[in-house]
Each structure stands twice: as C-alpha cells, then as structure tokens.
Design a protein that fits this description.
Elements: H1 2-21, E1 34-36, H2 47-56, E2 61-63, H3 69-74, E3 81-86, H4 91-94, H5 97-107, E4 116-124, H6 132-151, E5 159-165, E6 169-171, E7 179-180, H7 185-198, E8 202-205, H8 208-214, H9 221-224, E9 232-233, E10 240-241, H10 244-258, E11 266-271, H11 286-301, E12 305-306, E13 309-313, E14 316-318, H12 366-385
Parallel strand pairs: 1-2, 1-14, 2-3, 3-4, 4-5, 5-8, 8-11, 11-14
Antiparallel strand pairs: 6-7, 9-10, 12-13
Helix pairs in contact: 1-12, 5-6, 6-7
C-alpha cells in the first residue's frame, strides 16, 4: 500500500506540474467585468471548481439568482464580491420584518465576512410578470429587508436593490426622451425614492439582441454588436451613439430624471448574446455572440461611459457563465453561456480559463488517492489563491 501511495503521489504530482506549466496559456481577463452565475442545469461543475475557473479569469464579481449555500461556502475567502438574489416567490414573505430578519440571519449573516456578499436583489424583472400583487410587494419587501440589515448592523456592507427588464420603458429612443410606462409610475416612484435614500443602484437587464431578433431587417447588426457603424444621433441633445446598449442605459437615466432623480446610478445586471437559437431567432450564432461579448469586454476594459454620463463608467454583469440545459423557453434561453459546463469556451473572445477536472478512481485505488487528493487540493488552492 505504501508503494501504491508513493506511485500515485508521483503521478499526481506530475499531472499537477503538467497542468500549471504546460504550453497551454491561461489568459487573464482582469477587466472588472461581473458575471451572472445561473444554475438552471443538471450538468454544471461543482461550485468549488467554478471558483478556480473564475479565479483563473480574474473575475471578482459574481451575481447569483439565489443564496446558494454551496456556492457561498465554496467562495469563502476568495475575495469575490457577490450579488445574491431572492426570487419573486419570496417577496410576500419578505414584507414581514420577522421573516426578513430570520432569512438574513440564516442565509446571509453566517457567510460574512469570509464570503463577500455586497448586494441583495429583491426579485427579478418583477414588472414583467403583470402580477399586480407582486408589484405591490416589491417596495415593501425591499424596505423591510433593508431595515433588517440596519438592525443587524449589516447595511454598510450589504445593499438592497432589484433588477428590471427594459419593458419598464414606454419610450427608449431617442435616449433623452426615455420614460417609464405610465402604469408603473406609482410603483417606480417609491422605488426610486428608496434608491436615492439608501444610495443603492438601479439595475437593468439590457439585451440589444432582443431588438435585433424582433426586427432584423430594420436594426443594423453592427450597431448592436459594437462594430464600426454610422451610429445614431439623439436629435434633442445631439449626442451620438455607436451602439444600442449605451443608448438603452441613457434612456433609463432620462426616465429616472423625468421622475425627479439625478443621483441614482444605473447598472447593467444582465446583458449578453445567445450562441444558438430556434429557427425564428435571428442572429443567435456563435459568431455574433463572440463579437458582442468580445467587443463589450474591450469597452469595459477601457472603462467607457455613455454619452449622457461621460464621467460614470458603465457597470456591467455579463449573462452568463455557463450554458444552462434546463432553461425553459426558446433554444436561445439556455445558450447565453461563455462556457460549456465542461469548461470549454463556447466561442473565442480571446480569453481562456482553467476549470479543474474531475478525478474518477477504481475501488482499489480510492484509499491511496484520497490521501493524495487532499494534498493536491491544498497545493492547488495555495497556488491559485495565494
């Protein structure tokens, strides 16, 4: 057995050296980009392996759609900033101060400060549901959770917000004329007052892909893919836009200003482009997805701002890290990922990360390799997280 352990250790050590010093470079993003880590799939790598992948990409901002215990534990002491989510179904309960406090004490407080939770999103695209009871619950839930954070002394490190679809706009072009839908006015007025009071950002899920898919003959593809194009000019401000995403952001800023606020930051909680779609989903190709996300990353690296907010670099979370094979809806829904679940890039955007592989052993070698795996785990963790 001692000889078997020694041989296994030597083999594993050789494998470790091969992984870290092979001719295959691990390129680093280092762009300040955030990533959406969706998990509606049955074939995703474990959270601990995902932690290595994101570290190799130098991504330090992650948005979840829940408060997954396994994910938050796996990212302990990794210096990754997390946005965690409460699904729409939780909003009614979160209007109860006792339930809100209990949720924070059970799902958030135990992870702090070793896992850096910086924000909680209350629901996702609530106004897209047309559930008026849910609409009415959103602001009270946000206020109640925030007040519970204050009571627990956590409000300085964890903020509260919600993410909205661009369907909340009635006018999006020209950007300076941006305005919210009239039927949402009473709800958004209170929400904006809340953001202004607690200094939290207004989040939008912005997808130029949807505009192109719906009107491929009218929306210039280069304009939505950040490619060289003639652009468009806002006739009111004379500001020129060379891409649709920035125009969408400024339209939201204008809508917020029309409701009396100029001190609320707009951030993009989701944007991306699918690499595959159904026959009626124009433009959903690996080539277009690669252009959209590749060009977007370059602009993030340059810390670009929108024409109407020249001093405020656009804050962006790309959707998504992995393709998700259980997402309902059209084929595009499950194909927004930068990576396949096995760690292979879906398309080339000039970056490559490292996803540690799984090791499967026969019963005769399990005892030997269990010792080796513990040693290797510590070595790899030191090399990656040191």
């Amino acid at each position: 057995m001692e000889k078997q352990i020694k041989m296994s250790y030597m083999a594993a050590s050789s494998l470790l050296l091969l992984l870290f010093f092979s001719g295959s470079p691990i390129q680093i993003l280092g762009l300040g980009v955030g990533i959406n880590y969706g998990q509606i799939a049955n074939n995703l790598p474990s959270p601990s392996r995902v932690a290595y992948l994101l570290k190799s990409l130098n991504i330090s901002r992650v948005k979840l759609y829940d408060a997954d215990l396994n994910v938050l534990l796996a990212f302990s002491h990794t210096n990754v900033d997390f946005i965690i989510g409460l699904g729409n179904e939780y909003l009614p309960n979160m209007t109860d101060p006792i339930k809100a406090r209990n949720w924070l004490q059970q799902r958030v407080q135990p992870h702090l400060p070793q896992t850096r939770i910086t924000c909680i999103t209350m629901g996702n695209e609530v106004f897209k549901t047309y559930d008026h009871q849910l609409w009415s619950n959103l602001l009270p839930a946000m206020q109640t959770v925030y007040n519970a954070l204050v009571d627990l002394g956590l409000d300085k490190q964890v903020t509260v917000t919600s993410a909205h679809s661009l369907d909340i706009l009635s006018i999006s072009f020209p950007p300076s004329a941006g305005s919210f839908r009239q039927d949402l006015g009473e709800y958004l007025h209170g929400i904006l007052n809340f953001h202004a009071e607690v200094k939290s950002p207004f989040l939008i899920n912005a997808y130029p892909y949807f505009a192109y898919k719906d009107n491929p003959n009218e929306v210039p593809l280069d304009y939505v893919l950040f490619q060289s194009n003639q652009g468009t000019v806002d006739p009111i401000t004379n500001l020129k836009y060379d891409n649709m995403l920035y125009a969408q952001v400024d339209a939201v800023y204008s809508a917020i200003k029309a409701m009396g606020h100029t001190d609320i930051e707009v951030r993009i909680s989701e944007t991306g482009w699918p690499s595959r779609g159904d026959d009626d989903e124009a433009g959903a190709t690996p080539e277009n997805a690669g252009l959209y996300n590749g060009n977007l990353l370059k602009r993030i690296e340059e810390k670009q701002s929108t024409p109407a907010k020249p001093n405020v670099p656009v804050d962006i979370y790309v959707f998504a890290l992995f393709n998700e094979n259980l997402k309902p809806g059209p084929a595009s829904e499950g194909n927004y990922g930068l990576y396949y679940p096995n760690g292979t890039p879906v398309y080339n955007i000039g970056v490559q990360g490292y996803l540690p592989g799984m090791v499967y052993t026969s019963p005769s070698t399990k005892i030997a390799l269990s010792v080796v795996s513990n040693v290797l785990f510590l070595v790899i963790a030191y090399l990656i997280f040191a």
